Amino acid sequence: MTSVQVDKQHDANEAAGEGPEEGYQRGLGNRQIQMIAIGGAIGTGLFLGAGKAISKAGPSIILAYAIVGLVIFFIMRALGELLMYRPVSGSFSEYGREFLGPFIGFVTGWTYWLFWVVTGITEVTAAATYIHYWNQDIPQWVSSLVFTVALFGINLISVKIFGELEFWFSMVKVTAIIGMILIGLGVIILGFSDAGKTASFSHLWADGGFFPKGIGGTLMTLQIVMFAFLAVELVGVTAGEAKDPKKILPKAINTVPWRIGLFYIGALIIILSVVSWTVFEPGVSPFVRAFQEIGLPAGAGIVNFVVLTAALSSANSGMYSTGRMLRDLALNGQGPKLFTHLSKNGLPTWGTGVSVGMMLVGVWINYQWPGDAFNYVVSFATISGMWAWVVILLSQLRYRAKANRGELPQSEFKAPGAPYTSIFALAFIGMVIVLMGVDPDARISLYAAPIWAAILGVGYLSIKRRSAGGSAARAAVPASATGEQTPGTDAKD
Question: Which of 188, 190, 256, 413 is the most buried (most CB within 10 A)?
């Protein structure tokens, strides 16, 4: 499909509030998308990153997750409003292109691609770390390589298999967290196990207070907490392959509040009540550590398997997203045409393959800096992922303004409280970015952002120059020689 065909299809469907026919197979049903939505954000950020956040903020990390969770809900409802207006796989990139200009669409598509490449590195890094629980002798880079190759093979089968695998990955995570909450309640209320004598909700304020590191310590954890929620927007990328997106996606988005309440806030309240926050340390899963303190080594092993599954699930989702984002860019003339190719099963194999090749850089990172790899990639992933949220919010504000003026049809799933909730979310993200500049561990991502922006700027100018040159060349050829009735009109920025 050429860029002019995409434009025509876009215009034909835009008035009807529908997405263009992108060539994908609609193989994702309600059951699968619901579990992708539930499990999408239950990954490394919660299972591994929470250990560092707890050590920095103490029990007040619960408040940080609650506030960020509210902001995430505002973002998801803004995304939901856009998805019901026009559900497409390009999602954030496509909305940025339509409402903020072709350059923003270009930047968003490539930045979200980078986000998932880096996140894939993060997740296989975490998975390799979890393997050390059972065997310290296996090099971290070896485990990362094996996981990357295996997940790539899974993504070459079909979108239905991907959805089914994610369903069971998510089912394992959800079941495990509910089980951990129930066991923790049993320890606190009934007093069984080694930790039963000391377990108490008073741990939330007894060991230095609710803010043992001060409010400043809590604020400095916000970028870690934001990272934990990255990937909640993944349901937007599934829009082009959902069987009934206008019915399924609102249901998935509306599960966000209780997902956050149960799986993040509820789980952390129980864990921090079973044992004191002072027990937890960076680099160690707080869930695994809690079971060790309870005196159930087998339980700790089970939890370690679950968090391993969570990391692999997130990496699998990353491979899914990167191929779709590269194809959207290519279809709009903002990426190599090679990425427009679909396999007979409707899979963007070239885009996925190139993305996995980039993820293999993570194997090298694990080989060079096995101790620091996780911190590096968390910072890069956070700033890249937050850009997608910013574009979602800005696009929703522009869309709402146009819809209110009657220039576009109203969405069937309006964001409550908008535009004020979207403005608040944008301000909050801005504050987190400022705090990242203060944190030495996170500052590296801000150093990298201008470099990435410069690369994108050069790339975009190169595409515009090539596109303009192609238009001029076509204009110099008579229409009778090309078969075109209106030459020089098929270039797209």
Answer: 256
**Cβ-Cβ contacts under 8 Å for 234 (sequence gap 6 or more):** 36, 37, 40, 317, 321
Tell me how far apart the alpha carbons of residues 411 and 172 are, in angstroms, rounded to a whole number: 35
Cβ(369)–Cβ(376) under 8 Å?
A: yes
DSSP, collapsed to helix, strand or coil, labels residue 254 as coil
CB 67 within 8 A of CB 221: no
Q: Residue 478: which residues within 8 A CB-CB, separation 6 or more?
A: none
Among residues 192, 185, 180, the alpha carbon closest in space to that of 305 is found at 180
Q: What is the 3-state secondary structure (H, E, C) of 195-228?
A: HHHCCCCCHHHHCCCCCCCHHHHHHCCHHHHHHH
Amino acid symbol at 457: G
Token couple for 287: 């869930």
Q: pLDDT tens digits for 403-451?
A: 999 999 988 889 989 899 999 999 999 999 898 888 776 777 777 788 8
pLDDT digit string (tens) for 349-394?
Answer: 888 888 988 888 766 765 666 555 556 666 667 778 889 999 999 9
CA 262 – CA 175 distance, rounded (Å): 12
CB-CB neighbours of 70 under 10 Å: 17
Please, what is the Cα angle at 286 between 281 and 289, to 5 degrees?
Answer: 85
Residues 169 and 436: their CA atoms lie apart, in Å, by 32
**Helix H or strand E segment including 439:** none
> Which domains are assigned to the chain?
20-441 (1.20.1740.10)
Residue 18 has pLDDT above 60, yes or no: no
Which range among 280-289, 300-309, 330-339, 423-432 has the greatest average pLDDT?
423-432
- Secondary structure (3-state) at 28: strand
- The answer to whether 302 touches 462, Cβ cutoff 8 Å, is no
* 107-161: pLDDT as tens digits: 999 988 888 888 787 778 778 878 887 888 888 778 888 888 888 888 887 777 8
- Identify whether the C-beta of residue 75 lies closer than 8 Å to the C-beta of residue 387: no
Contact 99, 111 (CB under 8 A): no
- Whether 320 has a pLDDT exceeding 60, the answer reads yes
Q: Which of 197, 240, 267 is nearest to 342 (CA)?
A: 240
* Dihedral sign of CA atoms 465, 323, 2, 98 in order: negative
Residue 361 structure tokens: 């850089």
pTM here is 0.83
Place of tokens 């060991």: 207
Q: Give pLDDT, residue 491.
A: 37
Stated as kind and residue range, the H or E segment containing 250 is helix 245-253
> Bridge partners of 28?
242
CB atoms within 10 A of CB 213: 19
